[in-house]
Design brief:
It is an enzyme of class 4 (lyase). With about 270 residues, the chain is of the alpha/beta class. It has helices spanning about 35-50, 70-75, 80-100, 115-120, 150-155, 160-170, 175-180, 190-205, 210-220, 225-240, 245-255; strands at about 1-5, 5-10, 20-25, 55-60, 65, 105-110, 110-115, 125-130, 135, 170-175, 185.
């Protein structure tokens, strides 16, 4: 699908059902510059608009890091006005990942710090290998996390555990991250990307309509009281149940064959 500034976008399979977003600023350990953040915002908008895409993997081309967070060398040259101008670009980068209509999976190795950790948190699932190190050190440089960590981390691990990490800025190795519960798969060194791609392919085999509505129900219902949240689920159920995917899925199950979802049928 092409290369953006510091970001490669690849279709993993010929059908384009799984797309990989590859952070590729190895000279800066994938530090989030204004250009890279803008690339993420544009790339995620393009992927979100592509009906063929069923799952997304966010990975790193840098052996030494997933992403070390904001590019502080760039920011050291900023005036206050420069920083305010950068802010909406950064928000689009994180928001673009968070708002993808299809599931997104982060494949993390080595350092995922600050904004790098927040990129992973903006995905639905985090696969990390045993070399991964996480942290939100913003308070140590006079900042507050601005890519969603104060909200997304608490939703994954609870108020007190999030407070520990946010207020101390300490680093967490993969084994503790697994124990705290903010990663979803812990794998041997070098296996994060392959595991994330396998997981994406597994997701892509399911009904794309059902998966998208399931994600929408999760995201919209999470912050609601139970009654309204169940209404969100009901709306998602009705949308999936009235789609052609339901007919094909049930027919394929009864006939003991793989489903051919309507969107992927060959044209006559």
């Amino acid at each position: 699908m092409g290369r953006y500034d510091g970001l490669d976008v690849r279709r993993v399979d010929p059908e384009g059902q799984v797309v990989e977003l590859v952070l590729n600023r190895p000279e800066a350990l994938n530090a989030l510059s204004t250009a890279l953040a803008d690339a993420l915002g544009r790339a995620t908008a393009d992927v979100a608009a592509d009906p063929a895409v069923r799952a997304v993997v966010l990975s790193s081309a840098c052996d030494r890091a997933f992403c070390v967070g904001a590019d502080l060398k760039e920011r050291n040259t900023f005036s206050d006005d420069d920083l305010w101008r950068q802010r909406p670009i950064m928000r689009r980068a994180f928001g673009g990942l968070l708002d993808l209509p299809m599931p997104a999976i982060a494949a993390v190795h080595r350092y995922a710090l600050g904004g790098g950790f927040e990129l992973a948190l903006s995905c639905d699932l985090i696969v990390a290998d045993e070399t991964a190190v996480f942290g939100v050190p913003e308070v140590s440089v006079g900042l507050v996390p601005g890519g969603g960590a104060t909200q997304l981390l608490a939703r994954r691990v609870g108020w007190s555990r999030a407070s520990d990490l946010l207020f101390t800025g300490r680093r967490v190795e993969a084994s503790e991250a697994d124990r705290l519960g903010f990663i979803d798969r812990l794998v041997p060194p070098g296996r994060a990307r392959d595991t994330a791609l396998d997981l994406a392919r597994q997701i892509a085999r399911n009904s794309p309509i059902a998966v998208r509505h399931a994600k929408r129900a999760l995201r919209q219902g999470f912050a609601l009281e139970l009654g309204p949240a169940l209404d969100v689920e009901d709306a998602a159920w009705r949308a999936a149940a009235s789609s052609p995917d339901r007919h094909e899925g049930i027919a394929a199950f009864v006939e003991k064959r793989p489903p051919v979802w309507p969107g992927e049928r060959p044209r006559s």
